[in-house]
Amino acid sequence: MIREICRDTFFLSQRSEEAGAADMQTAADLQETLRAHAGECVGMAANMIGVRKRIIAVMLGMSPVVMMNPEIVARSGEYETQEGCLSLSGVRSTVRYRRITVVWQDMRMQKQKRSFEGFPAQIIQHEIDHLNGILI
Question: Residue 77: is its pLDDT beyond 90?
Answer without folding.
Answer: yes
